[in-house]
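Re: weekly structure request thread

Next one in the queue (307 aa):
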Amino acid sequence: MNLIADTKGIRLDVFVSENADITRSAAQKLICDGNVYVNGKEVAKNYKLNRGDSIKIEIPEAEILSVDPEDIPLDILYEDNDVIVVNKPQGMVVHPAVGNLSGTLVNALMHHAAGSLSAINGVIRPGIVHRIDKDTSGILVVAKNNDAHLSLAEQIKEHSVKREYVCLIHEGVKEDSFTVDKPIGRSRKDRKKMGIEPDGRNAVTHFTVLQRFNGATLLSCRLETGRTHQIRVHLSSMGCHIVGDPIYGLKKDKIAEQYHITGQLLHAKMLGFVHPRTNEYMEFSAPVPEYFERVLEKFYAKSGFQT
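Done, posted below.
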Protein backbone atom coordinates (compact mmCIF):
# COMPACT_ATOMS: atom_id res chain seq x y z
CA MET A 1 0.00 0.00 0.00
CA ASN A 2 1.53 3.30 -1.16
CA LEU A 3 0.17 6.59 0.16
CA ILE A 4 0.99 10.29 0.16
CA ALA A 5 0.50 12.39 3.30
CA ASP A 6 -1.90 15.25 2.59
CA THR A 7 -1.55 16.92 5.98
CA LYS A 8 1.34 18.06 8.15
CA GLY A 9 2.03 17.05 11.75
CA ILE A 10 0.04 13.80 12.02
CA ARG A 11 1.81 10.96 13.81
CA LEU A 12 2.83 8.04 11.62
CA ASP A 13 1.02 5.42 13.73
CA VAL A 14 -2.20 7.46 13.59
CA PHE A 15 -1.88 7.86 9.81
CA VAL A 16 -1.27 4.13 9.29
CA SER A 17 -4.15 3.19 11.59
CA GLU A 18 -6.60 5.45 9.76
CA ASN A 19 -5.53 4.57 6.24
CA ALA A 20 -4.98 0.83 6.67
CA ASP A 21 -8.18 0.51 8.74
CA ILE A 22 -6.42 -1.21 11.62
CA THR A 23 -6.10 -0.44 15.32
CA ARG A 24 -3.43 1.97 16.46
CA SER A 25 -1.63 -0.80 18.36
CA ALA A 26 -1.59 -2.92 15.19
CA ALA A 27 -0.22 0.06 13.27
CA GLN A 28 2.51 0.55 15.86
CA LYS A 29 3.46 -3.13 15.58
CA LEU A 30 3.73 -2.83 11.80
CA ILE A 31 6.05 0.17 12.22
CA CYS A 32 8.18 -1.48 14.92
CA ASP A 33 8.45 -4.66 12.84
CA GLY A 34 9.87 -2.69 9.90
CA ASN A 35 6.83 -2.92 7.64
CA VAL A 36 6.30 0.83 7.19
CA TYR A 37 8.59 3.19 5.24
CA VAL A 38 8.51 6.97 4.97
CA ASN A 39 10.31 8.26 1.90
CA GLY A 40 12.00 4.85 1.66
CA LYS A 41 13.26 4.79 5.25
CA GLU A 42 12.12 3.23 8.52
CA VAL A 43 11.17 5.82 11.13
CA ALA A 44 9.74 5.80 14.66
CA LYS A 45 6.03 5.31 15.29
CA ASN A 46 5.74 8.87 16.66
CA TYR A 47 7.35 10.43 13.58
CA LYS A 48 5.40 13.53 12.50
CA LEU A 49 4.58 13.42 8.81
CA ASN A 50 5.09 16.32 6.42
CA ARG A 51 2.76 17.10 3.55
CA GLY A 52 3.89 15.13 0.50
CA ASP A 53 5.71 12.38 2.42
CA SER A 54 5.56 9.01 0.68
CA ILE A 55 4.39 6.21 2.97
CA LYS A 56 4.70 2.55 2.03
CA ILE A 57 2.81 0.05 4.19
CA GLU A 58 3.55 -3.67 3.89
CA ILE A 59 0.99 -5.83 5.67
CA PRO A 60 2.31 -9.39 6.16
CA GLU A 61 0.06 -12.33 5.43
CA ALA A 62 -1.93 -13.31 8.49
CA GLU A 63 -1.32 -16.69 10.05
CA ILE A 64 -4.27 -18.89 9.14
CA LEU A 65 -5.89 -20.31 12.23
CA SER A 66 -8.84 -22.64 12.49
CA VAL A 67 -11.33 -22.58 15.34
CA ASP A 68 -13.45 -25.58 16.18
CA PRO A 69 -16.95 -25.48 17.68
CA GLU A 70 -17.06 -26.86 21.23
CA ASP A 71 -20.04 -27.96 23.28
CA ILE A 72 -19.44 -25.60 26.21
CA PRO A 73 -22.46 -24.50 28.31
CA LEU A 74 -23.49 -20.86 27.86
CA ASP A 75 -25.55 -18.64 30.16
CA ILE A 76 -27.71 -16.96 27.50
CA LEU A 77 -29.83 -14.06 28.71
CA TYR A 78 -31.48 -13.32 25.36
CA GLU A 79 -31.33 -14.52 21.77
CA ASP A 80 -33.10 -13.82 18.48
CA ASN A 81 -32.12 -13.88 14.79
CA ASP A 82 -29.78 -10.91 15.19
CA VAL A 83 -28.12 -10.95 18.60
CA ILE A 84 -27.13 -13.17 21.50
CA VAL A 85 -26.72 -11.66 24.96
CA VAL A 86 -24.54 -13.91 27.09
CA ASN A 87 -23.32 -13.82 30.69
CA LYS A 88 -19.64 -14.84 30.46
CA PRO A 89 -18.09 -16.64 33.45
CA GLN A 90 -14.81 -15.59 35.01
CA GLY A 91 -11.89 -17.51 33.55
CA MET A 92 -13.25 -17.79 29.99
CA VAL A 93 -11.34 -16.04 27.21
CA VAL A 94 -13.62 -14.27 24.71
CA HIS A 95 -11.90 -15.29 21.48
CA PRO A 96 -9.04 -17.57 20.43
CA ALA A 97 -5.48 -16.46 19.79
CA VAL A 98 -2.25 -18.19 18.86
CA GLY A 99 -1.58 -20.83 21.51
CA ASN A 100 -5.10 -20.57 22.90
CA LEU A 101 -7.53 -21.99 20.35
CA SER A 102 -10.00 -23.84 22.55
CA GLY A 103 -12.28 -23.30 25.52
CA THR A 104 -13.17 -19.74 24.52
CA LEU A 105 -16.51 -18.00 24.22
CA VAL A 106 -16.15 -18.11 20.43
CA ASN A 107 -15.69 -21.90 20.48
CA ALA A 108 -18.89 -22.19 22.51
CA LEU A 109 -20.80 -19.75 20.29
CA MET A 110 -19.77 -21.56 17.12
CA HIS A 111 -21.32 -24.76 18.50
CA HIS A 112 -24.43 -23.03 19.81
CA ALA A 113 -25.12 -20.79 16.81
CA ALA A 114 -24.10 -23.38 14.19
CA GLY A 115 -22.44 -20.86 11.90
CA SER A 116 -24.94 -18.03 12.40
CA LEU A 117 -22.44 -15.38 13.50
CA SER A 118 -21.26 -12.19 11.83
CA ALA A 119 -18.12 -12.53 9.71
CA ILE A 120 -16.82 -8.97 10.00
CA ASN A 121 -14.07 -9.83 12.49
CA GLY A 122 -12.97 -12.96 10.65
CA VAL A 123 -12.72 -16.61 11.63
CA ILE A 124 -11.09 -15.94 15.00
CA ARG A 125 -13.66 -13.46 16.30
CA PRO A 126 -16.98 -14.28 14.60
CA GLY A 127 -19.81 -12.28 16.13
CA ILE A 128 -17.59 -10.50 18.63
CA VAL A 129 -18.42 -6.79 18.79
CA HIS A 130 -16.79 -6.01 22.15
CA ARG A 131 -14.82 -7.93 24.76
CA ILE A 132 -14.28 -8.27 28.47
CA ASP A 133 -11.17 -9.63 30.12
CA LYS A 134 -10.70 -13.33 30.81
CA ASP A 135 -11.02 -12.92 34.58
CA THR A 136 -13.89 -10.41 34.38
CA SER A 137 -17.35 -11.93 34.43
CA GLY A 138 -20.52 -10.52 32.93
CA ILE A 139 -22.58 -9.50 29.95
CA LEU A 140 -21.59 -9.37 26.28
CA VAL A 141 -23.72 -8.90 23.17
CA VAL A 142 -22.80 -11.00 20.14
CA ALA A 143 -23.87 -10.28 16.54
CA LYS A 144 -25.41 -13.11 14.51
CA ASN A 145 -25.14 -11.29 11.17
CA ASN A 146 -23.13 -8.48 9.61
CA ASP A 147 -25.93 -5.90 9.69
CA ALA A 148 -26.36 -6.40 13.43
CA HIS A 149 -22.59 -6.23 13.92
CA LEU A 150 -22.29 -2.91 12.07
CA SER A 151 -25.19 -1.41 14.03
CA LEU A 152 -23.80 -2.45 17.40
CA ALA A 153 -20.26 -1.36 16.50
CA GLU A 154 -21.56 2.08 15.51
CA GLN A 155 -23.43 2.40 18.81
CA ILE A 156 -20.26 1.54 20.72
CA LYS A 157 -18.30 4.07 18.65
CA GLU A 158 -20.88 6.74 19.45
CA HIS A 159 -20.77 5.82 23.18
CA SER A 160 -24.52 5.15 23.20
CA VAL A 161 -24.24 1.59 24.53
CA LYS A 162 -24.76 1.54 28.30
CA ARG A 163 -22.19 -0.58 30.13
CA GLU A 164 -22.14 -0.76 33.90
CA TYR A 165 -19.74 -2.83 35.99
CA VAL A 166 -19.40 -3.45 39.71
CA CYS A 167 -16.13 -4.09 41.51
CA LEU A 168 -14.74 -4.40 45.02
CA ILE A 169 -11.64 -2.34 45.76
CA HIS A 170 -9.27 -2.41 48.71
CA GLU A 171 -8.97 1.30 49.21
CA GLY A 172 -11.74 3.69 50.01
CA VAL A 173 -12.39 6.89 48.08
CA LYS A 174 -13.46 10.22 49.55
CA GLU A 175 -15.98 11.13 46.85
CA ASP A 176 -19.33 9.39 46.52
CA SER A 177 -19.04 9.76 42.76
CA PHE A 178 -16.20 10.77 40.48
CA THR A 179 -15.02 10.58 36.89
CA VAL A 180 -11.61 9.54 35.58
CA ASP A 181 -10.75 11.05 32.21
CA LYS A 182 -7.23 9.85 31.36
CA PRO A 183 -5.85 8.46 28.06
CA ILE A 184 -4.91 4.80 28.03
CA GLY A 185 -2.21 3.15 25.93
CA ARG A 186 0.39 0.43 26.10
CA SER A 187 2.56 1.10 29.16
CA ARG A 188 6.02 2.40 28.36
CA LYS A 189 7.34 0.87 31.58
CA ASP A 190 5.84 -2.60 31.08
CA ARG A 191 4.74 -3.58 27.57
CA LYS A 192 2.58 -6.39 28.99
CA LYS A 193 0.36 -3.83 30.73
CA MET A 194 -1.77 -0.85 29.79
CA GLY A 195 -1.21 2.48 31.47
CA ILE A 196 -2.04 6.18 31.54
CA GLU A 197 -0.08 7.47 28.55
CA PRO A 198 -0.19 11.02 27.10
CA ASP A 199 -0.41 9.67 23.54
CA GLY A 200 -2.94 6.96 24.46
CA ARG A 201 -6.55 6.78 23.37
CA ASN A 202 -9.23 8.86 25.07
CA ALA A 203 -10.73 6.94 28.01
CA VAL A 204 -13.50 8.03 30.40
CA THR A 205 -15.01 6.08 33.32
CA HIS A 206 -17.69 7.26 35.76
CA PHE A 207 -17.58 5.78 39.27
CA THR A 208 -20.16 5.74 42.05
CA VAL A 209 -19.78 4.32 45.55
CA LEU A 210 -22.42 1.68 46.20
CA GLN A 211 -21.30 0.66 49.68
CA ARG A 212 -18.44 1.48 52.03
CA PHE A 213 -17.25 -1.46 54.13
CA ASN A 214 -14.63 -1.81 56.81
CA GLY A 215 -11.59 -2.46 54.63
CA ALA A 216 -13.15 -2.32 51.17
CA THR A 217 -15.51 -0.35 48.95
CA LEU A 218 -18.07 -1.55 46.41
CA LEU A 219 -18.12 0.60 43.27
CA SER A 220 -20.35 1.00 40.25
CA CYS A 221 -18.32 1.73 37.12
CA ARG A 222 -19.98 3.14 33.98
CA LEU A 223 -17.94 3.09 30.81
CA GLU A 224 -18.12 6.03 28.46
CA THR A 225 -15.35 4.55 26.30
CA GLY A 226 -14.13 0.96 26.13
CA ARG A 227 -10.35 0.67 26.19
CA THR A 228 -8.38 -2.43 27.13
CA HIS A 229 -8.33 -2.86 30.94
CA GLN A 230 -9.94 0.58 31.25
CA ILE A 231 -11.57 0.27 34.68
CA ARG A 232 -8.57 -1.50 36.17
CA VAL A 233 -6.09 1.05 34.80
CA HIS A 234 -8.17 4.07 35.81
CA LEU A 235 -8.61 2.82 39.37
CA SER A 236 -4.93 1.89 39.64
CA SER A 237 -3.99 5.40 38.50
CA MET A 238 -5.86 6.73 41.55
CA GLY A 239 -4.13 4.36 43.95
CA CYS A 240 -7.18 2.09 44.11
CA HIS A 241 -6.90 -1.63 43.38
CA ILE A 242 -9.57 -4.21 42.59
CA VAL A 243 -9.56 -7.25 44.86
CA GLY A 244 -7.91 -10.21 43.14
CA ASP A 245 -6.49 -8.26 40.19
CA PRO A 246 -3.28 -10.12 39.25
CA ILE A 247 -1.94 -7.36 36.97
CA TYR A 248 -2.92 -4.00 38.47
CA GLY A 249 -3.77 -5.11 42.00
CA LEU A 250 -1.83 -5.24 45.24
CA LYS A 251 1.21 -7.51 45.40
CA LYS A 252 0.01 -8.71 48.80
CA ASP A 253 -3.75 -9.13 48.39
CA LYS A 254 -4.96 -10.25 51.80
CA ILE A 255 -8.65 -10.27 50.86
CA ALA A 256 -8.05 -12.46 47.81
CA GLU A 257 -5.93 -14.81 49.90
CA GLN A 258 -8.49 -14.99 52.69
CA TYR A 259 -11.38 -15.82 50.37
CA HIS A 260 -9.36 -17.84 47.84
CA ILE A 261 -10.13 -15.43 44.99
CA THR A 262 -8.35 -15.94 41.67
CA GLY A 263 -8.96 -13.09 39.25
CA GLN A 264 -10.36 -9.63 39.83
CA LEU A 265 -13.73 -9.04 41.52
CA LEU A 266 -15.04 -7.11 38.52
CA HIS A 267 -18.39 -7.94 36.91
CA ALA A 268 -20.12 -6.51 33.83
CA LYS A 269 -23.50 -6.14 35.49
CA MET A 270 -25.62 -4.23 32.95
CA LEU A 271 -25.68 -3.77 29.19
CA GLY A 272 -28.11 -1.60 27.23
CA PHE A 273 -28.31 -1.04 23.47
CA VAL A 274 -30.74 -0.34 20.64
CA HIS A 275 -31.73 -3.52 18.84
CA PRO A 276 -30.21 -3.39 15.33
CA ARG A 277 -33.42 -4.50 13.58
CA THR A 278 -36.33 -3.26 15.71
CA ASN A 279 -34.66 -0.04 16.96
CA GLU A 280 -36.05 -0.89 20.41
CA TYR A 281 -33.88 -0.07 23.41
CA MET A 282 -33.05 -3.24 25.32
CA GLU A 283 -31.34 -3.55 28.69
CA PHE A 284 -30.01 -6.65 30.41
CA SER A 285 -28.55 -7.29 33.84
CA ALA A 286 -26.84 -10.19 35.57
CA PRO A 287 -26.12 -10.53 39.31
CA VAL A 288 -22.55 -10.92 40.49
CA PRO A 289 -21.39 -14.55 40.46
CA GLU A 290 -21.54 -16.71 43.58
CA TYR A 291 -17.87 -16.32 44.55
CA PHE A 292 -18.22 -12.50 44.36
CA GLU A 293 -21.49 -12.54 46.32
CA ARG A 294 -19.89 -14.72 49.01
CA VAL A 295 -17.18 -12.11 49.62
CA LEU A 296 -19.75 -9.29 49.71
CA GLU A 297 -21.85 -11.17 52.27
CA LYS A 298 -18.79 -11.48 54.52
CA PHE A 299 -18.11 -7.75 54.27
CA TYR A 300 -21.74 -6.83 54.91
CA ALA A 301 -21.65 -9.02 58.02
CA LYS A 302 -18.31 -7.65 59.27
CA SER A 303 -19.49 -4.08 58.71
CA GLY A 304 -22.79 -4.66 60.51
CA PHE A 305 -25.01 -4.13 57.46
CA GLN A 306 -28.13 -6.09 56.57
CA THR A 307 -27.98 -7.81 53.16
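The longest strand covers residues 204-212. The mean pLDDT is 91.
Next request, please.
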